[in-house]
DNA sequence: CGGGATTTGTCACGCAACTGTCATCCGACC
DNA sequence: GGTCGGATGACAGTTGCGTGACAAATCCCG
C-alpha cells in the first residue's frame, strides 16, 4: 500500500480528513484508536501517518513513540491543541510536523508533500553512536556495552541519545533539562541524578567515568 | 560554518531570533536580505536556514527556490502571514516547514531539531581556537596542549575563551572583570591571580609566558 | 481492577574543588 | 635607588557535584 494512514478518534473529523485527502489524490486509510493504527501500520505500512494527540486509551505521544520505534515513517500531528508544550513534546516524541485543527486541506497536503520529498532524499542507514565498547542505537532503542544489551529506562535513554548526538560538546544542565525533559526551568540536580544512574549502567568504573564526563561549572558531555 | 542561517530584514526580529537560537545551543548567523543570505550560504553553508517571506529586493519565495537549486539544506519559513496560499506556495517552492510569527523559540527549536533528524544533517564540526600547540574549544569545554587535555576550572576557562576570542588585542583588567565575571567594579588583582593560575597550566614556562602575555599598564592579551 | 515492581523526581548532606582576598615579594622602568 | 605595577603563595569561605534515601507516579501483569 502507498498512502496515508489517519489515526483520529473523532469519526466526523477522520472521515472529513480521509475524504479530503482522497480528493487530493492520496490513497487513504483510517484508524479510530492508537492501538488500531499501530496494528494497521505494522501489517501494511503506509507512506505517511497523520495522528491526533487526544486519543482514547494509548495517547498520541505514546503512539508516535511506538510508530517511531518500528519505522521511519513520516508522522504529522493534527491536533486541536495550540500549545507550545504539546508541540515540542510531540516533535520530541518523533513527529515530523504539527498542525493545528482546523487545518486547510491544501496546507496539509502541501506539508505532506514537503515531508515526503524530504523523507525520500534522506533514506539513510540507521545511525549507531559508538564510544569505545559502548553502542547507542536510537532507532533500535538499545544500548550495548561490548555487544551486550544494557537495560536503561526511557529517560536515561533519551538523555544518553541527546549526549551522544552532540558527542564531544558540552551540554549544560539547562540545555539537557530543556531537550530531554522539555522543562524551561527546574532543579538541575535532576540531571545529576540521572547521569549518576546512567553511569552505574554504562561505565566500567562509575566513579571515574571515561565517556559520560562532568565539566565542572559547565555541564556534561560524551567523550569519544 | 555549521549551524543556522537566519534571513530576515527586520533587524529587531533577526537579532531576537539569533540570540534565542544561540541560547538554544545553535551556532548562528544572520543576513538582512535574500541576496546576502544566498551569498553567505554559497560561501559557507549552514546546516539549516530560516527565512522570512517578506524581504526587500528578491522575495522569500525566490530566495527559497535559489537556495534549493544549489543545495538540499533544510529550510524553515518564519513569516508573519498566516495564509494558506502563502504556506502552500512556500512549501511548493521547496521549504520544509512554515511557522507563523510570533513563534515560541522552544517550538522553533523543536521543529529545527525534528527537521535535522529527518534530513540527517551532518554533525557540525567543532570550532577551535589554536595558538601553536594550544587549542581552546568553547563547544567542547576543553583546552588542549599538544593534543593533551588540560584541566582548567570554569572561571579560568571563561577567561581563556574571552582572551582567545579577541586574540592579538589587549584586554584591560576592567574589561575582563566585566566580561568574565560580570563585575562592574572590583579588585583588579583578581584577574592577575587567575591569569597566573592559567599560566601554570597552559604555558611551557609559566614565568616567561609566550601566549598569555602581560602588557604592563594595559592588561593582558593572547599572542598567536 | 488491583497490587507489586519499576521508574521518576525531590531532598538533604558531605566532600572535594574552586574562588576571591590578602600580604608579601619581585622585577621593570624612570 | 625608588616607585609602581604585577606575580605568587597561603587560606578561609563558598560553590558545585555525587549520592543515598524516599515518596510519588507509572507501568505491568494477572
TrEMBL record, chains A, B:
It comes from the Bacteria. Residues 3-116 form the Response regulatory domain. Signal peptide: none annotated. Keywords: DNA-binding, Phosphoprotein, Transcription, Transcription regulation, Two-component regulatory system. The keyword Heme does not apply. Pfam families: Response_reg (PF00072), Trans_reg_C (PF00486). One of its GO terms (molecular function) is phosphorelay response regulator activity. Gene3D superfamilies: 3.40.50.2300, 6.10.250.690, Winged helix-like DNA-binding domain superfamily/Winged helix DNA-binding domain. Residues 126-224 bind DNA. CDD domains: REC_OmpR (cd17574), trans_reg_C (cd00383). The modification 4-aspartylphosphate is found at residue 52. One of its GO terms (biological process) is regulation of DNA-templated transcription. InterPro entries: CheY-like_superfamily, OmpR/PhoB-type_DNA-bd, Sig_transdc_resp-reg_C-effctor, Sig_transdc_resp-reg_receiver, WalR-like, WH-like_DNA-bd_sf. PANTHER family: REGULATOR OF RPOS, TWO-COMPONENT RESPONSE REGULATOR ORR33. This is DNA-binding response regulator, OmpR family, contains REC and winged-helix (WHTH) domain. It comes from Micromonospora halophytica. The lineage of its organism: Bacteria, Bacillati, Actinomycetota, Actinomycetes, Micromonosporales.
